[in-house]
Amino acid sequence: MDFCKYYDFEYEEIHRYLANKNIGRVLLQFPEGLQPCIDNVVDELKRRFPDIEFYISTNPSYGSCLVDEYSAREIGAQLIIHFGHYEYPGYRPSIDVLYIGVKRLNIDIQTIGRILDDICGEKNISKLCLATTAQHIKDIYMVIDRVERCKIFIKGTIYGCIPLNPDNCDAIVIISGGKFHCISQSLALLSMNPKPRIFCIDPYIQSVIDPEPEVEKILRTRMWKMFQASNAKKWLIVTGFYGQYRENIVKKLVEKLKSLGKEYRVVKSLRFDREILANIDAEHNYDAIVVTSCPYIAFDLKDYGKPVLTVGEAFMVLENNFSSYRYPW
Cis (ω within 30 of 0) for the bond into 194? Predict the structure, then answer.
């Protein structure tokens, strides 16, 4: 498939890992965007390792917080090869995992370097921090030598639900396709004072995105959702699996709801979406919904009939404290 030729599935890295191990069965896990390449990858791995059985997981793989441990145990796999992400901080799967970032090929490093140098030329920017997704993490180390007008700090791989540490940053640059990582980091840094400037570079079209206008629009929506939830009596708490099961957060929410005399239910879901909400008739059974698994879900369900909140937003409502926006937890 032509699409797949633009990605490096790092077969040599996989070969080095498997060559000296006695492994008979492996589970392969891909995010949806890379699943069209499954056949290509399996063909190449079978050519290199004809004695290994390769199984494929099509369960959700939005990030490395969702390593498919259950499927691996069910089939007796000794290893999971997780494509498209690197290890999620604070989550260690119960089965050995090899993380393959799947580098995106043919990115114009020279143009990105020029864009970064232009950003460095703006007023009061002498220390520039870079973060990116697994597909581009190797590229940003190649970019550093092309930037002459300020000092570069590499903040590493970016995650949509983990705020970057802005220490030593006059400005932060997020290199990522799409807007999700750019917007999420902008929201996470809102309460900082002083707040570093944020620039976002889409490496596929070599353009700089200013997240501020969209962040302001999102904040208006989020404030309205919190207002809708301010008098909620019955709450639905959504928790996830694996790295998306945040036991301490659920416990704190339950304790807070109990102290306020609120009713609540806790639902555990691997994939939480509109269909599940419809199945449990959430629009009629609950006044507010808080998603502890992934903050993006709350944004994706912004037009749902009842307010769907992130954890941080839920605590803002329950504590009646709207002095600063709290994202994600």
Answer: yes
Q: Is 153 exposed, middle or buried (0-12, 13-18, 19+ CB in 10 A)?
A: middle
**What local confidence, expressed as pLDDT, does residue 167 receive?**
86
Overall pTM surpassing 0.70 (yes/no): yes
Is residue 189 a contact partner of residue 163, using CB atoms and an 8 Å limit?
yes
H, E, C per residue of 28-64: EECCHHHHHHHHHHHHHHHHHCCCCEEEEECCCCCCC
The separation between CA 25 and the C-alpha centre of its own chain, rounded to angstroms, equals: 28
Give the model confidence (pLDDT) of 62-101 as tens digits. Answer: 999 999 999 999 999 999 999 999 999 999 999 999 999 9
What is the per-residue DSSP string for 241-256? SGGG--HHHHHHHHHH
Handedness of CA 230, 265, 247, 92 (dihedral sign): negative
Sorted by where each starts, the structural domains of the chain and their CATH numbers stand as: 2-104 (3.40.50.11840), 109-210 (3.40.50.2300), 221-318 (3.40.50.11860)
Instruction: Express each pLDDT in 162-181 by its tens digit.
Output: 988 888 899 999 999 888 89
- Counting DSSP H helices and E strands in the chain, the numbers are 12, 15
